[in-house]
Amino acid sequence: GKTTLLTNLNNKFSTTPNDFEVVIWALVSKDYDVEKIQDRIGENVGYSDGSWKNKSADQKAIDIYGILSNKRFVVLLDDLWQRVDLNQEICGEMGARRKIKVECLEPETAWELFQDKVGDETLNSHPDIPNLAKQVAERCGGLPLALITIGRAMACKTTLEEWNYAIEMLKRCALPKMKNEVFPLLKFSYDNLPNATMKCCFLYCCLYPEDYCIPKKRLVEYWFCEGLLDKFDRINEAQMQGGDIISSLLNACLLERDGENYVKMHDVIRDMALWITRKFEATEDTFFVKAGAQLSQEPYVKAW
Q1: Judgement on whether residues 124 and 181 belong to the same structural domain of the protein
Q2: What pLDDT is stored for residue 39 in this prediction?
Q3: Which of 198, 202, 206, 214 could be cross-linked to 273 through a Cys-Cys bond (beta carbons 3.0 to 4.6 Å apart)?
Q4: What residue stretches are annotated with the NB-ARC domain (predicted)?
Q5: 135-152: per-residue pLDDT in tens?
Q6: How many domains does the chain have?
Q7: pLDDT value at position 267?
């Protein structure tokens, strides 16, 4: 929900009068790179030519300071992974006039979001399901991404047995031995994918870099070439299966639409997929991943 909130702020600053002369949006990502952030800031203040991008980080900092030092500006940093000091004293030292702590969703709001993703048809399929659905929603701990993905996973579950099973599985996610409470919750949606082919195709998507716009057509071709799809005599049959898998992953909220021809993987979903491949999927389709290495060919055997 943080990116959605930040997007709304950015849109408001862009469309309504405010105290800022310059509004800058910069995507940070986990692989923190100061110069990439400088380039994004530079694009917002008129530095976008190739010669400026070739300058050193120190030179860019001087140029940016020269432009912004005499202006009122706001910088919106999205997808920030490094720790930020949230102590209220720090906020005071920075001159913050109003401090807002972004909390998880309140129970009522979380329930509304979960209902929306599950759908009325499923919730009304049995008189006892709404009560069980509330228990599932509570297990999501007010986390929007968990509510959305688990809600979509339960959208076709119309029996009490399925809902009770979901509650039991989510209870196991809360065991103290689980170091990351989010990934086990999200893994529930992965576990509910209907077959091994779809699961493997989903995990394959985590090989793309973070925040990457994945061409749907190219993705299906890669699945086919890697042998992840069923065996077909004609390529168009494989393309149809690949398209169906993409639609299913979109409906499960494990992929996101990015225009008509592209999809994206939410950064937390991607990290969950990497976590699954590392912890659970010891199969012949194991992946080799090294973020930021920009591999163009496989390394020598000794480097694996």
Answers
A1: yes
A2: 83
A3: 206
A4: 1-123
A5: 999 988 888 888 998 999
A6: 3
A7: 82
Please write down the HEC assignment for all residues of 214-225. Answer: EEHHHHHHHHHH
pLDDT for res 181: 63
Q: Which helix (H) or strand (E) holds 257?
A: strand 256-257
Q: Is the pLDDT of residue 91 over 90?
A: no
Of 191, 208, 233, the last residue of a domain is 191
Provide the β-strand partners of residue 257: 263
φ, ψ at 296 (rounded to 5°): -105, -15
C-alpha dihedral sign at 21, 27, 30, 32: negative
Averaged over 192-211, what is the pLDDT? 91
**Does residue 289 contact residue 298 with C-beta atoms inside 8 Å?**
no
Could you give the 3-state DSSP secondary structure of residue 47?
Answer: coil
Range of the domain at 49: 2-93
Distance CA(27)–CA(48), nearest Å, equals 16
In a shared domain, residues 82 and 111: no
Are residue 149 and residue 222 in the same domain, yes or no?
Answer: no
pLDDT in tens, 208-258: 988 889 999 999 999 998 889 988 778 888 899 999 999 999 988 899 999
Instruction: Indicate whether 201 and 277 sit together in one domain.
Output: yes
Residues 6+ apart with CB under 8 A from 158: 122, 125, 126, 129
